[in-house]
Amino acid sequence: MRKTFTTTEHLTVFVELGAGHLTATGADVAEAVVEIHGPRADDFGVELKGAGLAVVAPRGRFFGFGDSHDVRVTVPAGTDLVTKTGSADTATAGTLGMLRLKTGSGDIEIERADGAVMIESGSGDVRGQELGAEVRIKSGSGDISLGEVRGATGISTGSGDVVIGQARAATVLKTGSGDLEVKRSEADLSLTTASGDLTLGHVPQGKVVAKNVSGDVRVGIPAGTPVWTDINSVTGSVASNLAGIGKPAEGQPHVELRASTVSGDVILQQI
After folding, report:
1. How many angstroms separate the CA atoms of 173 and 190, rounded?
2. According to the model, what pLDDT value does residue 66 have?
3. Measured between alpha carbons, how far apart are the two ends of the chain, in Å?
4. CA 28: distance to chain centroid?
5. pLDDT exceeds cutoff 90 at 185
6. Contact between residue 102 and residue 85 where contact means Cβ atoms under 8 Å apart
7. How far apart are CA 46 and CA 169, in angstroms?
8. What is the largest CA-CA distance in the chain?
9. Is the pLDDT assigned to residue 65 strictly greater than 90?
10. What whole-number distance in Å separates Cα of residue 55 and Cα of residue 25?
11. Could you tell me how far CA 142 lies from the centroid of its own chain?
C-alpha cells in the first residue's frame, strides 16, 4: 500500500503497529507519504484529518504479535510523531519535531528531534543522536544511549544501562542495577543506582549528586576548576589527584560534588 497526502499544516503523525518495523523520515518535502508492506498491508487504516495523520494496523490475536509489517512514513521536517507499538522497532531519520513513543519490546532509534521527547519502553533499547529539547524516558530493562541532549533530561530504568554523550541542561538519571555514564556535562547532574557504576567523564561546572550502593563512582574534572566535595564510602576507598586551588572567584564556574557509596570506590580525576 502507498498513499500520498498534501498538506500545508504542521502535522502530527500517529502510528499504531504490533510487530514489524516503523521508519519515520522528516525531510524537505511538502507532502506526506505512507508505504506499508506485509501480509495485511491493505487492511491498515490510513487517514488524514486536518493536521493529524493516522496509520493504524489491523487488529491481530494479541497486540504486538501476529503478522509483521514494514511501515515507512515520509513527512515534512519538524513533523511530530506519536506511536504505540508492541514488538515493532521504530527508527527516525532526518529531523522530526516532538516525539511521544510507547513500545513494549521494540527498539527505538532517533536521528534528530527538535521538540520534546517522551518515551515509555518495556524491554527495548533506546538510542538517540541529537535531541534538541526536553527528554523524558522510562524503561523497564532496555539500555539507553543518547548523543547530544540540549534540554532538561529525566531517565529512569529498572536494570538497563544509560549513557549520555553530552548533557547541556539539568539531568537526572536513575536505575536499579545498571551503569550510568555522562561523558560530558554543562549543568547540574543527579545519578542514582543500586549496584551499577557511575561515570562522569568531564564535569566543568554545576551541582553533582552521585549515589550508589556497590558500584564505583568516577568523576573527571578539568584542571583549574574549583571543587567543593562531600564524599562518603563505607567500605570502599576514596582517591583523588585534584589540585587544591581554593574558593572560586566571583562568577567563576565551579563544581559542587556530593558522592556516596557503601562498598564501592570513589575516584576523582583531574583531566
Report:
1. 6
2. 64
3. 56
4. 25
5. yes
6. yes
7. 38
8. 70
9. no
10. 15
11. 11
**Angle 12-16-17 (CA atoms, 0-180°, nearest 5)?**
135
* Distance (Å, whole) CA 244 – CA 83: 51
pTM across the whole model:
0.94
The secondary structure of the chain in percent helix, strand, coil, rounded to multiples of 5, reads 0, 55, 40
C-alpha cell at position 182: 555522562
Alpha carbon 141 to its chain's center: 14
SS3 state at 44: coil
Confidence of residue 54 (pLDDT cuts 50, 70, 90): very high
Say how far apart CA 28 and CA 176 lie, in whole Å. Answer: 42
Kindly state the cell numbers that stand for 173: 538519571
Lowest mean pLDDT among 142-146, 220-224, 244-248, 251-255: 244-248
The angle at the Cα of 135, spanning 134 to 138, to the nearest 5 degrees, equals 150
CB 24 within 8 A of CB 17: no
How far apart are the C-alpha atoms of 215 and 177, rounded to whole Å? 9
| Counts for the chain of helices (H) and strands (E), in that order | 0, 27
31-37/2-6 β-pairing? antiparallel
- How many other CB atoms are there within 10 angstroms of residue 235's CB atom? 10
CA distances to 199, 223, 238, 241 from 269, rounded to whole Å, are 11, 9, 11, 6
Which H or E element spans position 67? none
E strands, 52-152, are 52-56, 68-76, 80-85, 89-96, 99-103, 108-113, 117-121, 126-131, 135-139, 144-149
**Which uninterrupted H or E stretch holds 38?**
none
